[in-house]
Amino acid sequence: MGWFWADPVKTQTCPVSGSSKGSKCPVTHESAPKNAKSSTTDGCPVLHGSDPQDGLNPLNHIPANLSMERQSHQILELPKDRTTSSIPKGSEETGEFWEYPSPQQMYNAMVRKGKIDPNTGEEIPEDAVESMVFVHNYLNEGCWQEILDWEKKYIEDTNVEPKLLQFMGKPTQYSPRARWFNFLGTVFPTWFSSELPFDRHDWTVLRPDPSSSNTEHPGYKKVRYVIDFYGGPDDEEGLPTFNLDVRPALVDFTSARDRFTRWTEPILSEYFGSEKK
């Protein structure tokens, strides 16, 4: 991933069978951990490896004024319309929900980062950009749905929805969980996969909390989520799938308790007849 911006790993079918005009799917698909469970759901407006001082928005590390202008060498006309996500903003910026970059903005950002340069070996076809944006948006929506599932208990207690404050892509910084799966896959290849995620995101969520002492965001508590992205095998129709490993970071007792409870409740329910409340 690279833009917009664990519970059982969620598998989602890529909604695009490759990109337009016969180009292959622009997202790298790798194997997910063999021990990961799968299901279906929905990228990403973060410029990875960017200098935070390089005119970037600190909430998403995207250039504050990402151009909508067509490149001089550009052949195709790319859409300039931006899609509004279902993810509420936690900042005071204009607009209630986060917006995804337009295909033209995505293309300009890739040019800016040297991803569209025949001399780098990382050239991305222009006709793949629209599909790339669509897949990235789809995956981001799925990430948010997974976070809402984790936050369900707190939503029910307060009747207030959480918000996304900021996010950052860390594709080269593997999470401890991803490294552990990689190690298990090396030692026990029959039971685990040694494949590493092709991307990682850290999302900071504002959780409704009336007792919070957060003066910057009254009534909310900051909670960091870690998201590992894995590529899965193609489905029966030949479409690529993705696995999302979404969970709160182990930075405090509450997050540790939430992860322990979430992963033990199904076992307790199956073997001891307890019901999830």
From TrEMBL:
Catalytic reaction list: holo-[cytochrome c] = apo-[cytochrome c] + heme b
Biased composition range(s): Polar residues: 12-22
Primary subcellular site in the record, as a coarse category: mitochondrion
A GO MF label: holocytochrome-c synthase activity
Cellular compartments annotated: Mitochondrion inner membrane
Any one Gene Ontology cellular component term annotated for this protein: mitochondrial inner membrane
Region (Disordered): 12-43
EC number from the UniProt entry: 4.4.1.17
Protein name: Holocytochrome c-type synthase
